[in-house]
Amino acid sequence: MESADVAVVGGGILGTSVAYWLAARYSGRFVVLEKERQVAEHTSRRNTGVVHRPFYLHPKKRRVFARAAQVSYGLWKRYAVEKGLPWAEVGTYEVALDDSHFEILDTYSAWALENGMAPGEVEVLDGREVRRREPNVRCAGAILSKTDTCVDYRAFTQALKADAEALGVQFLFGKNVQEVNAYTGDVEVLFTGGGEPLRARLLVNCAGGDAVDVAHASGVGLEYTDIHFRGEYWVVDPRVKDLASRNLYSVPRHKDMPFLDPHWIVRVNGGREIGPNAVPVPRSYQYEGLRVLDWFGKLLEPPVENKVRLLTNPEFVNLSLAELLSSISKGEMLGRVQRFLPALKEEHLVSRGIAGVRSQVIERNGALAREAIEVPGPYSYHVLNYNSPGATGAPAYAAYLVDRLASRGDLDCVRKNPKPQKVWDWEPVSKAMGLAA
Ligand SMILES: Cc1cc2nc3c(=O)[nH]c(=O)nc-3n(C[C@H](O)[C@H](O)[C@H](O)COP(=O)(O)OP(=O)(O)OC[C@H]3O[C@@H](n4cnc5c(N)ncnc54)[C@H](O)[C@@H]3O)c2cc1C
After folding, report:
1. What is the pLDDT along the chain (437 residues), one digit of tens a residue?
2. What is the spatial distance between Cα 87 and Cα 66, in angstroms, rounded to a whole number?
3. Closest CA to 9 of 46, 35, 28
4. Which residue out of 43, 161, 263, 287 has the highest number of ligand 1 atoms within 8 Å of its CB and is therefore the one to mutate?
5. Of ligand 1's atoms, which has the minimum distance to the CA of residue 383?
6. 0.85 exceeded by the pTM?
7. Of 165, 281, 391, 401, which residue is most buried, by most CB within 10 angstroms?
8. How far is CA 243 from CA 126, 127, 237, 343, 436, in A?
9. Alpha-carbon gap, residue 151 to 266, rounded angstroms
10. Is ligand 1 within 6 A of the CB of residue 263?
């Protein structure tokens, strides 16, 4: 039977970052189990591609993500230079659609500094000044985050995979983890379609959209369930790309569901798109169609009560119906962007972009979880609800996880052996994340 000291499930940006840091800090047999044929096949390439600066993240309620985003910004910037990967610091306007949103802009301005951004990185502007700089944008005002950056997260993940391999990590593709059985001292991992099982002394679940399923297959996190939202994009005709030169986000209409408001996005290749919306879908990586019948299976999947509580929330149901409409109707999606970019017309949206799926944990009380959730199991550790700005924060969050595992004694099965790193220094990252063992 194959064996490993640590098996990371999921070759997305998080699992790849975790494997990289593990091998950079320890000696042992590290493997990444990925069901696809390459890394970053799912959310880690199907996203908006923005390195988010943390001005919009509550410094206390979203402390870990805010810190991970702040620390990772410097890491990614350096990595892009070192590896010759694209890095387009285009900036983002987060626009206030009416005067009542001004207070939020001031709050964001304070959070930016509290989260470690430099004073010159953000600027609060009134509507007239925004219009002077971006003549097609209509709003009451905006906060400009000048260092928000467009990147290609798939290229980052692929480069990181190569670095992890150079440190000895093995990526095993076509390995769809189906069942995890704990024994005394290790776990046995079984795969869909049979094949040789694998024994690992520690399993780290970074399975993204399927992380809840992998946790359940390990017998842990049984109090959680999830719901999936497909974020769809429309590609803008390149001839009207100059309608706006920077990303345009709007102050969220629903502060608990900030992912509901589509943006005007500058892609790293210079193209423009609008999106994403958030269409409820029954499966994790379902990029097309509505598959209405699959909902029955999804709704009956235990635990049922979390979903029942969410689905009896009339606000959630109404919002979900509006999102469904925005999937079917281009005009509906467009209308949301026209609120701040009225010059954008339906004929400017020329084709659908690459959709991605966000998997959101539903807590027992029916609320959608906001932060990532870490669930320890016997010889396993599970990261659930690792959502936006998860790609931004991946390298720092992964370092934090490695520290976390070390402080729990989960890494006692491998030998500490820090290797000098060319691009990233471990110590400052670990220190900044504040959990050094
Ligand atoms: C529409 C959208 C836009 C976003 N935009 C941004 C953005 O602009 N900036 C930002 O910072 N974040 C953004 N995010 C969030 C970010 O993309 C995610 O937080 C991040 O990519 C998650 O990475 P991951 O490695 O956890 O998940 P994934 O990339 O989904 O990786 C998980 C991997 O696990 C594998 N896997 C799953 N189940 C199994 C199994 N049973 N066995 C083996 N392998 C398995 C999958 O194949 C996959 O490769 C966005 C997300 C969405 C949905």
Report:
1. 899 999 999 999 999 999 999 999 999 999 999 999 999 999 999 999 999 999 999 999 999 999 999 999 999 999 999 999 999 999 999 999 999 888 999 999 999 999 999 999 999 999 999 999 999 999 999 999 999 999 999 999 999 999 999 999 999 999 999 999 999 999 999 999 988 999 999 999 999 999 999 999 999 999 999 999 999 999 999 999 999 999 999 998 877 777 778 999 999 999 999 999 999 999 998 999 888 888 888 999 999 999 999 888 888 888 888 888 889 899 999 999 999 999 999 999 999 999 999 999 999 999 899 899 999 999 999 999 999 999 999 999 999 999 999 999 999 999 999 998 889 999 999 999 985 44
2. 21
3. 35
4. 43
5. 26
6. yes
7. 391
8. 19, 16, 11, 7, 46
9. 10
10. no
- Domains along the sequence of the chain with CATH: 1-91+150-223+369-437 (3.50.50.60), 225-368 (no CATH)
Instruction: Please name the amino acid found at residue 383.
Output: V
Distance CA 214, CA 14 (A): 15
